Amino acid sequence: YDLDHILPIAVYPTNELWNLVPSEPQFNSRQKRDRLPTSERLEIARPHLERTYQRYESASKLAAVLSEDAALRFSRIQLDTTFAVRLASSVVALVEEVAALRNLARF
Fold it and tell me: How far apart are CA 95 and CA 81, in angstroms?
């Protein structure tokens, strides 16, 4: 696996940890590229995002970075037992908003 940007750098230039998730290299280079997922794909991805953020939280150094990055981008998110779930929902909402505002190609 490689790390991939949920919101591609060409669309939303940030390397914040919430925007970096494990991805199969073939999927990223052949299917996703610099496009955003459709609403349906985002809903399928939501539990995967939750698990990824939970894994980041379980590593002390990554947890601190994830918390800081999430606080900068999503000011209402608090660190508690549902942090990963709420962060995944916030990321999905942000992707939807960026896609709608910029009328971007989706896959």
Answer: 24
